[in-house]
Structures are given as C-alpha cells and as structure tokens.
Amino acid sequence: MDAQGRGRADNIDPADQWVLNPDTGEYELQLGDSAPQQSAVPGPRRAARRAEGAVRSRTGAPGRGAPEAPGRDVPPPRRRRTAPEEPVPGRRGRRPAKKAGKAKKVVMWTGGSMALVLVAVAGAGYLYLKHLEGNVDTTDVGTAGASSFRKDEAFNILLIGTDKRTGEGNEAYGDKENTSGHADTTLLLHVAKDRSNATVLSIPRDMIVDIPDCDTKQDDGSFETIPGIHDRFGYSLGVSGRDAGCTMRTVHELTGVKPDHFMMADFNAIKTLTTAVGGVDVCVEKAVNDEKSGLVLPKGPSTIQGEQALAFVRTRHAWGNEGDLDRIKVQQQFLASLMRQMSSGDTLTSPTKLVKLAEAATNALTVDKAIGKVSTLKDIALELKKVPMKNISFTTVPVKDNPAETKVHVTVVVDEFKAPPIFDAIKNDISFTDVKQKQKKEKAAVAARLKGTKAPASDVRVRVLNGGAADGSAQDTLNWLQLEKGVNKSENGGNAPADLARTTLEYAPDQADQARALAAMMGLSGAAMKPGKSVTNAQGLPTMTLTLGKDFKGAGIPLTGPAKIDVKDKTTADKVQCAS
C-alpha cells in the first residue's frame, strides 16, 4: 500500500503526511509510529535504507528494533537508549535520563518542493510519487520523435489538446463523430539550450497545411502508413486513424522544427488541473454572458475552475471577431495565468495542492514512449523550472485568409513572409524576448562595421567555404567574385566543418577594410561580419573566411541579413492581461 492508499485507509489526508522542513525547504513524508509503514513511498529498498541512515546519523548510533517485515520498503522506526533509565516516582514506567532526539519518524525525501506544470489543454507534471507513473498513457510514435530526452540540449515538446468527448460532463463538447478527437488546441514548446528562455508557438487548427504520410503503430505491433492530405491542421490527429506522431510530422513539415516529444490531453485536463490549484485568475475587459459555452463573467478579474475554466478557453463568441485566432490569444493568457498559479507560493507550499496537482496532471496525460517514465517527466519539469517566467514567450503562427475561399473565409493559410523568420528563430534557438533588442543591436552593428574605408577589390583576400548552402555554391561564388568583382586573391576552401544557419565573414582586426569591401559587394549585414582570426591562403598570406550558410541565396544575390521577426502579438508568461 502506498502513501496515498494508507492515508485513505486511516481517514488521513495523504497530503497532511508531507511536512515542510524549514531547514532545507524540502518536503518530508512523516509516518506515525503506530501506523503500519508498508511502502510509504514507492521506490527501491535502497532509498529506504538511505532514509534510515539519515535517522541514524541524527541519533548518533544504530538503533535496536524489530527486524524489517517482509515486503516493506521503509523499515519501522528504530530507537536507542542514550543513557540508563531511572525510575519515575509515582509511575510504573521509567523515563530516559536524556531525550533521544527528534528522529522518531522515518523520513523519505522528495526530489524537491517544486511542481511546475505546463498545460494549455495539454500538460506536463512534476511527478514525485512513483505510483503516479501508472496514470500516464503512452503512444509509440516511431521516428516522428526523439528516442530519449536530452537534458543538455534544447528541446521541443508538442502540446496537444483534443476535442475528445470523454469524461463526465463533456458529452456536449467537441466532435461527437470522432471518438479519438482532433488536434483542437496545439502549441509547440521550445526550451532554449541554456534554459534562459522558452517559446510557446500556437498553431491554428483551421490552418490549411500539408499533412504528410505517417506510420501509425497497430495493436499487433505492425505499422500502417496513412496517406497524406492537404487539409486543416486539426485533421492531423484522429482522421483516418492518425495519432500524435502524425501531428508531430505535420508540425515538422510546416515549420522545419522537429518536435522531440508530445504531451496530449482532453477537456478534463483543464477542469481537473484548475480545480487542483484552487482556481485560476483571469480578467475580461467587458462582462461576458455567452449562451453557447455557458460562460458568465463580470467585467474585471475573476477566479475560475472546473467547467467554468473549460468554457473560458473553449468559447469563441465572447472574444474579438468570434474566431479561432482571437480564442488562441485568450488561451495563451489563460495558460500564462495557470503557470503563474502553479508556480506560486500558495501552490508550492501546500502539500494538499501538490498531491492533487500531481494526480490531476498524470491522469490527464498521454505522452510518447520516450518520456513515459516518471523519472523522465520529472527531468523535463526540472528543466522547465529553470526558465524565468518573464522569458517564456507566447506567439502564434502568422496566417492570412485562405485565397481559395472567395465568399466566406473559414480557414487560413500560413503567411509566407511573416512565418519563416519565426520558424527560423525557434529552429536557431533565438529568444523572442530578446528579438527587439537584438534588432537594435544589429542595426548599430551594421552602421559600425560597414562605416570606414574599403580596400580595393584587388587587395581583398578571402577563402570561400560551403556551410549549408546548395551544392556548388562555394565555386559559383568564387567564379562570381573573380570574374565579376575582380577579387582575384580568392580561393575555394571546400565544405565548412559544420553547417551554419546564416552566412558569416570572419576577419582579423587589420582586415576590416577588406571585410567592408567584400560585405558591400555581397550585401552582407553587419551581423554577418565576425571579427576574429584570419587563416593562411595558398600563398602564405593572411586571408578572411567567408562561410556560406543555409540562408545563402546564390552568387551575386545580396544577403540583407536575417529577416526581422514580427513580434507585435507576442506576450510573456509574467504579464497579466484582460481578455477582450
């Protein structure tokens, strides 16, 4: 019997057994002396012995007690006598000459006091009890995702909220014709390698995309290939038997960013998680009375949970032009508020809320097999914990009306000009919280690096490398420089050691005039110019290095630097906003 079961058997709230240790800031599971202590916390016998050792170290010596009962993970309390006992006048018992210390209860330490849960109809949990692992369902997505979670790398998790009608009170929601549910709410979570920032990219469900062929695992262990279609993004899940792996492949096809893992939940996630934390604070600019969703809220701030919270994130008619894009903005505001509540002191210092939160989160989740273990989910949550709230950005895939719809616009398509820079920023681990500042710095860098004298073309020495451009780009550029620009002291250095997202020109300080001349010829931005070291060319002379990156458009085509990112609709998790 675990701690949860034991608490119920003794009419004890299991959360009351977790006590905050003021010296460490961690929670201890403390069990009474008279109660059976069978499997107080699921875990290896070694962990129990470590806890016993901690008790012994505080009492000063190994104690004497009953032998460990078979099948127990945590041994019963052990006591020692610190000095001979002396009679107690007027009593039959004896009292110890000295108090034995505070270590009367066996202590099992949790992994920490932080439970950071990220949910937007989908969610993730900080799981600190082993038995919770059984609550989580898993799906084998094959090569659509990563084979394991890497704590030392940037990672992408696809959060999927379905419109599946399972759960009490959900019969009126979602798609009654599709029992498996569609990708109703989808967010791509990117966490930076250095954990300084994270980006949450919302993907509109009614966006027309190419859904590629995908392999889905069948009950007999075989894989069935489902043909691709050109349709709404939401149909990447559920239709024709598509699973979350198909949604992951669709996101990769759309953005160029490959999701490493997925987490999926249905309507119940919002209801149970908001109830577990005691409600989520929201704000509306005007009073809401939406008959279709049943949402009724006064103007200003409110605290919502359960059915009311679900109505808040599902209604379209209460916001803006009553479309899905306005609902997405409100869902982002709701998610930010939920994250603030879950990481607040009110939640983290409440064992009752932590237990309820862990139960609710794990019961709500379906994940890929690579992260289905409790230890892996814990690792993910701990990595998320490192990201400051102010550096968690929310944005949406830029879209425009579907040109194929001439009368009534009900679907959208990707904006081919505004979307690529956002996709590239995520792919290249660029923080959206720093975008505006970086753009200002880049502008200053352009002015500073391009300002000054330029060497004549005949004095420019450069080695050209291919660092991710199309095959033959280095030779094409060399030919162009020599034949069209007169840069005859140039050479083809072959392939670069590694591919680069953007073209760069590295030069020594005394080659600045040559760098400015070459930048002017090729249309390089100041950001592409990297002061550094020179290399030696075939004639033994110091030479600059031009590495053609994936952004290279072809010989003679100017490179104007990285496109600016449209961040006007961006918000961050620390900001409180009112829905409108």
Architecture overview:
Helices cover 26% and strands 21% of the residues. The strands form 9 sheets. It has an 8-stranded mixed sheet, sandwiched between helices. Strands 23, 24, 25, 26, 27 and 28 form a 6-stranded mixed sheet that branches. Strands 1-2-5 form a 3-stranded antiparallel sheet. Helix 12 links the parallel strand 23 and strand 24 (489-495). It is α+β, with helices and mostly antiparallel strands. It is elongated, with a radius of gyration of 30 Å. Helix 4 (267-276) packs antiparallel against helix 8.
Mean pLDDT: 75
Alpha carbon gyration radius? 30 Å
User: Which residues form runs of ≥5 with pLDDT under 50?
Assistant: 1-18, 31-129
* Main beta-sheet annotation: 8 strands, mixed
- CA-to-CA gap between the ends? 50 Å
Would you tell me the structural class of the helices and strands?
alpha+beta
Shape: elongated
| Portion in beta strands | 15-25%
Q: What's the helix count?
A: 13
Query: How many E-type strands?
Result: 29
Strand order of the largest sheet: 6-19-14-7-8-9-20-29
Proportion in helices: 25-40%
